[in-house]
Design a protein that fits this description.
By secondary structure, this protein is mostly helical. It has helices spanning 2-20, 119-175, 198-207, 214-222, 243-251, 283-290, 304-311, 323-330, 356-372, 388-401, 407-419, 427-431, 443-447, 470-477, 502-515, and strands at residues 187-192, 233-238, 256-257, 259-262, 271-273, 279-280, 346-349, 436-437, 486-489, 496-499.
Length: 522
Amino acid sequence: MNDRWARAEERHRQSVEERRYRRRDSGWGADDRAPRGRGSRHAAPVEDDWDDYDDDTTVIPVYTDEEPEPVPPPRPPRSGQRSAGTRKRPARGRPVRDEDDGEEPPRRRSSRSPSGRGPSGRGQSARGKRSRVASRKAAERKRRRRNLWILGCVFVVLFVAAGGYAGYKFIGKLGGPEDFAGPAGPPVVVRVKSGDTAEQIAETMFDKGVVASSGAFYEAAVRNSKMTSVQPGFYSVPTHSKGSEAVTALMSKEARVGNVVISEGKRLHDSTDVNTGARNEGIYRKIADASCLGTGAAKKCVTYEQLDAAGASADLAALGVPAWAMDSVRQVPDRTRQLEGLIAAGTWDFDPSGTPEQILAQLVTDSTRGYESTGLMQSGAATGGLTPYQTLIAASLVEREALPNDMSKVARVIVNRLAANQPLQLDSTVNYTLDKTEVATTDADRAKRTPWNTYAMPGLPATPISSPSLEALRAMETPAPGAWLYFVTVDKQGTTMFTDSYSEHLRNIERAQQSGILDSGR
């Protein structure tokens, strides 16, 4: 009895082990076509008391590198046989374990993936992904190394270039700046602007070809204490000069060119004084004398006649005529007088190497800036509605008729007479068109009807009759308050009497005649 029981336990243990560690026959070289369900030969039922015991332990999978072959559908169950897909629990509880077995082996999880692939497929996919990631990282490392090499080469080139340039500059400093050694060449006109430093002048000298390098001029200039006395303007300096010689030439008195001084009340053209016979040089003559370059046979100047012809040009914009004077200047009856008054009194610098038109344009443009700085464009309200050009004309009359202390009063007389449409009757307007001038005028001269004679017509002359000073212009822009209509200078000291009574004015004229100031030299 005991032997039978022992044999039964042994058979039961073998049956449990076969079911628990069931494997696919293909993994052991068996026929792949063998059925894989419970109906296989490894899962045949055992004819004993434990034959209906079933366990839900998961089958241990066979790992392969290939995709698992599809499982054929199960065969239909035979009559009286259990279906392979059903499980029957033992009637007497769990099977008895052998005392020598120890603990029941743990249940293993299925190693199949949700997609149905085994672990070998998943491992192969992971290895492929790791391979692609490794390849990308390797390529990235290669690119980084290449970029580092390129950057390194660039830095090396820049370092070498910087070192070479620094060395070149250092050697240049040791040897001094480049300088001319041969004889000087022909002169050239150089401009020194207001506020220029020695370094800026050196750059101008280099640009004009005077010196071989700006350093050559600069080093000589900073060693010369007289360099600070150089004034803004135009200078004639020889080209291809040594730095020290260029500095010396710049500071010489003969170097300054294109500098002209125009006194207050000066006209464009020359005139002759009736009493002395001396020539009163006009503005064109002054400009011509200041335009000379060179010495001896090489001396070149712009002539008086060239300036007179250029000043009569119909291209007013090329002559620098401002917009506020353009329309009135176009209507001037004598084209040779159209620029009268547009070149202001003062000290001016111009480039004498330019054409006559360029010289005049530069002077007119600079004068316009000076005129506009006084408030000329806003003066109409105080002058009875005079335009800027009409205010300039009136200021030229003030300049010729009054001393500085009386300018604002004379301006008021002009404004009052214009408002009353009364002729101005100023001797300065009669003298303007005469070749020979004096303070007094004759009855015949006053009777001549010209666009400038204010005895023969009411209103202002066609153009200014001289170059007014800024003081005369300011006086005309803000006339002194008063009702005066007449004025006359009664002595040679310049004493001027103002009145709004004509009878009193006649008495003042008699006083002037007694002083001899109104005596004519004709």
